[in-house]
Specification:
This protein has helices spanning 3-31, 40-45, 51-57, 62-70, 90-98, 117-126, 143-153, 173-186, 206-209, 238-241, 282-287, 318-332; strands at 77-80, 106-109, 132-134, 162-164, 221-222, 229-230, 271-273, 279-281, 307-308, 315-316. With 334 residues, it is α/β, with parallel strands linked by helices. A 4-stranded parallel sheet has the order 1-2-3-4, with no helix packed on it. This is F-box protein. It comes from Melia azedarach (Chinaberry tree).
């Protein structure tokens, strides 16, 4: 065999071997595909995420991190809720809001107790075009500080569409009228919009309210029963809606007991307690699963607090579980 024939044979074998290796790699890549870049739809969803989830997305990969840090659209609606709200300082909030570059439209601070009037005023001065301001449960704020913030947002014919201030201490009727005057002057069509009802059993979803048209101008009002500024709820029962006068079944939670499950008013003779101390009507109480020991249910909002029992298909509530552990410790002197 000549040298050229040997060289040709070796080359042919090398090509066959390389083809076999390529087929093996292709089959292995089909079963275990290499991680690729995020889907394009994921970048569109960034603008709808609360701050905690948005910051978490920035830790996934380099492309998402760059998108979170550079895309102003992702920071136009800033919503701070659990678990970030308890740890949020004014310095961190200033850094977060600065990413909007003055284009902030929605600022929702849910139970952010460390935010003060001064911090809120600084944010609004750099973001004067906020349309929706939600500060429920921000006990570091005062009615005077909120009025000053709303007054600043009302300059230059700007329109503040909605304001949520439930849980702010010492709000009087004069404070409420002052706030309402700013919203009415800047938005005369506010009373013409179809406003959504506020129901006791529905958790306020500020992520959805950021893009909802039927949101009320101010979430608190003067209770028709006690004449105090509080959250006033509408009844869900059809029978109550047909009663006259219409406000007979509207009021704050101090004046009317509301069912945490269905949002309807509860008569005293049909009032039942849940393990989580929420009030339930008799109909809802009968439909919910009960604790194996105390025969009390959780409302759906707190249903995850119960632990499954191995002896029966039901559950044991956290109260009974704690009492059982305490008795065990006393009996065995642990």
């Amino acid at each position: 065999m000549e040298f050229s024939d040997i060289e040709e044979k070796i080359e042919h074998e090398a090509i066959e071997k390389s083809m076999q290796m390529m087929s093996i790699q292709a089959s292995s890549s089909d079963s275990n595909p290499e991680p690729g870049p995020p889907h394009e739809a994921l970048f569109l969803a960034l603008a709808y995420l609360p701050v905690y989830e948005l910051l978490s997305m920035s830790e996934v990969c380099l492309s998402l991190r760059d998108a979170v840090n550079t895309d102003v659209l992702s920071w136009i609606n800033i919503i701070v809720d659990k678990p970030l709200n308890r740890r949020l300082s004014e310095e961190i909030l200033m850094k977060i809001t600065s990413k909007a570059e003055g284009k902030l439209r929605t600022l929702a601070l849910i139970n952010c107790e460390r935010i003060t009037n001064r911090g809120l005023q600084q944010i609004i001065e750099k973001n004067p075009f906020i349309k929706k301001l939600y500060v429920p449960g921000c006990t570091g704020l005062t009615p005077e500080g909120i009025i000053k913030a709303v007054e600043k947002l009302s300059e230059n014919k700007h329109t503040l569409e909605s304001l949520h201030i439930r849980g702010i201490y010492r709000i009087t009727k004069d404070h409420l009228r002052n706030l309402q005057s700013y919203l009415q002057v800047n938005s005369p069509q506010q009373n013409q919009k179809k406003q959504r009802h506020i129901l006791y059993h529905e958790d306020t979803n500020y992520l959805l309210l950021a893009n909802e048209e039927g949101d009320r101008g101010i979430d608190v009002e003067i209770c028709p029963k006690c004449d105090e500024v509080r959250m006033v709820f509408d009844c869900t029962k059809d029978a109550c809606k047909r009663k006259l006068p219409a406000y007979r079944c509207r009021g704050c939670c101090r004046c009317i007991p509301w069912c945490a499950e269905c949002g309807g008013c509860v008569e005293l003779d049909s009032m039942e307690d849940a393990v989580c101390k929420d009030i339930l009507c008799l109909d809802c109480w009968l439909q919910l699963a009960k604790c194996n020991l105390c025969n009390k249910p959780y409302c759906r909002q707190h249903a995850n607090l119960g632990s499954n029992s191995s002896d029966s298909p039901g559950f044991v509530c956290d109260v009974c579980q704690g009492q059982s552990q305490q008795l065990y410790y006393v009996e065995y002197e642990i």
